[in-house]
Amino acid sequence: MKMICSDSLGRLSVLQLDESTPSLDITCRWKAHGYEAWIAAFNYWNCDVIYSGGDDSLLKGWDTRAAPDSPVFTSKRHSMGVCSIQSNPHREHVLATGSYDENVLMWDLRQMKQPTSETHVHGGVWRLKWHPTDGAFLLAACMHSGVHILDSTADGSPIVSSYVLHNSLAYGADWSRVSLPEKSVTIAEPASSQAEEPVAGGGDSTTQKPEPPAHNLRIFYESPTASFDVVLEDDSGGYVPEPCGRTDDRPAAAVPNSEKCKQAQTNLVATCSFYDHVIHVWRWQRLSPVE
User: Fold this and answer.
1) Which is it for the CA torsion 172, 1, 105, 71, positive or negative?
2) Which is deepest, 13, 27, 125, 166, by most CB within 10 Å?
3) What are the pLDDT digits (tens) for 68-125?
4) 223: closest CA among 169, 277, 159?
5) Cα(208)–Cα(217) distance, integer angstroms
6) Out of 2.40.100.20, 2.130.10.10, 2.30.280.20, 3.40.50.2000, which CATH number does the structure's domain 2-175 have?
7) What is the pLDDT of residues 128-180, one digit of tens each?
């Protein structure tokens, strides 16, 4: 087993775990950045390739099979310290990076001259984590801006869910690897005749009613206060999604087309904040049409 770490002297160190001893030995160490090296990460598809970011605002790529003091590439695209990097474990050529410049950049590793998208998240990006099963979604802990989930497959990698931690800084974030059961939810959508309402004062102008929210990020557990959102479980301890609209026992044939059944896909997200030393567990629910 190999590990990579960075340090305040700007160095990267590759460590090898010898399970027979057991011992942890440094197999390679080199000067990678002129200032603090904030982050180092493996390419999940090729563990000989390493990415690093430092307080010198540089993003670098390294191949440990070659001379370690010579980077494969160096990018100056970030304008401040690069403090988070993660290779996408589901999409081979996708890399995400975050910086104190408050931007999350998506990269195609086959062409590192320019990022494929740039998302301003209004806070330094301390942590990036790809969804454990869906390569589209990226979780970001963004200091005073809170926690965001980005959709990397949509144009511009927009933010699809957010939560701001008041009076503190979002420092770390990760997804739960435990799968929660998916359940179908019937969502009542306004009929086309009800979707538009005249604007006060008359005229031909109309205003569109907002669509039902497709994403939800809600607090589930908070430590040290140990407060729980008890609506998530039934008497047997099973997960119960919140109804998004009306549900009933009508047969499928009796349900009008304006009411669509959608699949509730739910994940748990854990975050920690800096000043108040609190761990939060969130429930993120997104809806997708049932085939």
Assistant:
1) positive
2) 125
3) 789 999 999 999 999 999 999 999 999 999 999 999 999 999 999 999 999 999 999 9
4) 277
5) 25
6) 2.130.10.10
7) 999 999 999 999 999 999 999 999 999 999 999 998 876 789 999 999 987 66
Q: DSSP letters along 40-64, please?
A: EEEETTEEEEEEEEETTS-EEEEET
76: its two tokens: 């100056």
How far apart CA 230 and CA 211 sit, in angstroms, is 27
Asked if 118 and 105 count as a contact pair (C-beta separation under 8 A), the reply is yes
**Element at 116 (helix H, strand E):** none
Letter for the amino acid at 186?
T
For residue 159, which phi and psi values (nearest 5 degrees)? -80, 130
What type of residue is 49?
V
Tokens at residue 278, please?
């609190």
Reading the block at residue 192, the tokens are: 């086309």
The distance from CA 266 to its chain's CA centroid, rounded to whole angstroms, is: 14
Domain extents in the chain: 2-175, 185-289
Candidates 116, 48, 127; CA nearest to 77 is 116
